[in-house]
Design brief:
The chain is an alpha/beta fold and 313 residues long. Helix content is 46%, strand content 15%.
Length: 313
């Protein structure tokens, strides 16, 4: 998988961890929430991922007047045929970029729930199955809050990971200017694999070995989040499944057929931090879910690597 990261880095300068997170989401059949300010390369990264799998990329700008049908599609009456026909919306793609998702109303946001969880949409008594692979990359601005609608817990829970692009450092910023001064690297990016190959890789990810000790480790961390006095709502069973599948995908990205404790530890924050709900007292103290999870990880004994890998190597 390092060649896939290098392939994306022909367009995106640096950002290996963010690219890894998107690969983990794609390989684990999960969705990714990118939180960052405009202009940091979120759209460009999504387009590069779609180009790499030779997939259909659709982008939709979320606004307060956006309707659910603008996402899913509509049935319209065709006067020539005399019948109602379905006109597919942008969700019928392989990678959907939901730009500034928190600017749409909760009703429109919820239109994505069935797509993200079931891989299908239901309209007018008909069920339409989305072509696989299907990945939603949603963005939201962490600074500007006027005119936004915070994502409800049910919506956040559908995102496998939440990650941030961040500003480039000095050297990366200089490389970006040089790289895009005369050329458009995305236009020259060639597909790395096709849809069938990606689906086969997703099946391989599910076969990556996870020891009983590591499964128990994931459960212990989740239980701690449910017992902590500063956390009102801890990690759900869906959250534990997401961490397990993400760890399998990360091990696959690192070309291993077994999961290590470090795989789990490195993904706890991006997979779980956005799912937790702090207590009112914790919010008044300006505590963060990231910091609480870091503290919990220090309190829980980590399985030894040789025990966690078992006989999978």
């Amino acid at each position: 998988m390092p060649q896939w990261i290098a392939h994306i880095q022909q367009v995106i300068v640096g950002k290996q961890e963010v690219i890894e997170h998107l690969l983990v989401g794609m390989l684990a059949s999960g969705h990714v929430l990118l939180e960052d300010v405009p202009g940091t390369g979120k759209t460009l990264l999504a387009k590069a991922m779609a180009r790499s799998i030779n997939g259909v990329f659709k982008r939709i700008q979320f606004t307060p007047d956006l309707l659910p049908s603008d996402l899913t599609g509509i049935y319209y009456f065709n006067q020539k045929s005399g019948e109602f026909e379905f006109r597919a919306g942008p969700v019928f793609s392989h990678i959907l970029l939901a730009d500034e998702i928190n600017r749409a109303t909760p009703r429109t946001q919820s239109a994505l729930l069935e797509c993200m969880e079931e891989g299908q949409i239901s309209l007018e008594g008909h069920t339409h199955t989305l072509e696989q692979p299907f990945l939603v990359i949603a963005t939201q601005n962490p600074v500007e809050q006027q005119g936004t609608f915070p994502l409800p817990e049910a919506q956040l829970d559908r995102f496998m990971l939440k990650t941030r692009m961040g500003y480039p450092d000095h050297e990366e910023a200089a490389q970006i200017l040089k790289r895009f001064q005369q050329n458009q690297p995305l236009a020259d990016l060639q597909p790395l694999l096709d849809h069938a190959s990606l689906i086969h890789m997703q099946e391989q990810v599910r076969q990556v070995h996870v020891s009983d000790e590591l499964i128990a480790y994931i459960v212990r961390i989740a239980e701690k989040t449910r017992e902590h006095e500063s956390i009102a709502i801890g990690v759900s069973p869906r959250g534990t499944q997401s961490l397990l599948r993400a760890a399998q995908a990360l091990a696959f990205v690192k070309e291993r057929n077994y999961v290590l404790p470090d795989d789990v530890k490195s993904l706890v924050l991006p997979v779980w931090a956005h799912r937790l709900v702090l207590s009112p007292q914790a919010r008044m103290k300006h505590m963060s879910t990231e910091r609480l999870l870091e503290q919990l990880l220090l309190e829980i004994e980590v399985p030894a690597d040789h025990v966690a890998s078992g006989t999978a190597g």
